[in-house]
Design brief:
By secondary structure, this protein is mostly beta strands. It contains one helix and nine strands; from the N terminus they run H-E-E-E-E-E-E-E-E-E. The protein has one helix at 6-22; strands at residues 28-32, 35-39, 47-50, 54-57, 66-70, 75-89, 92-102, 115-119, 123-125. The strands form three sheets. It has a five-stranded antiparallel sheet with strand order 8-7-6-3-9, with no helix packed on it. It has a two-stranded antiparallel ribbon with strand order 1-2. The longest helix is centred in the N-terminal third of the chain and has 17 residues, at 6-22.
Length: 126
């Protein structure tokens, strides 16, 4: 009998999606098996407002490379929310929700359009 590599991936994806559907408000925690998903903004409307100065990272991990700075009061187009590495930000010591945003300002050698992950607990949906 042939084993599919997609079945375990589908189960994990379904767990993450169901947990993210529950975590819809600022600082709302939702249990996903043994993992708590903590999310502020969820990218439900394609834009997020940022409430604190943070660093956009190349991966959903605070130890990954800096892509650009994000300043409190800015609004960004967002692409998705993902569960990444745990971090402490905006008053939450063990958060793990990351939002992929796209920078529309020419901050990077005169080119706009760079993407980076920011802590979801520091955002709210627009």
């Amino acid at each position: 009998m042939r084993k599919s590599k997609l079945l375990p991936l589908a189960a994990v994806s379904a767990t993450v999606v169901s947990a993210l559907a529950v975590a819809s408000g600022t600082g709302v925690a939702a249990e996903s098996g043994t993992q708590t998903v903590l999310a502020g903004g969820t990218c439900s409307g394609s834009w997020v407002d940022v409430h604190a100065t943070v660093i956009a990272r190349s991966r959903p991990d605070a130890a990954s490379a800096k892509v650009f700075d994000v300043y409190a009061g800015e609004t960004f187009p967002c692409r998705k929310i993902v569960v990444g590495e745990n971090y402490g930000a905006c008053g939450y010591p063990q958060a793990n929700g990351w939002i992929l945003v796209q920078d529309g300002i020419k901050r990077h050698d005169g080119y706009a359009g760079w993407s980076g992950y920011i802590p979801s607990v520091c955002t709210s949906d627009r």
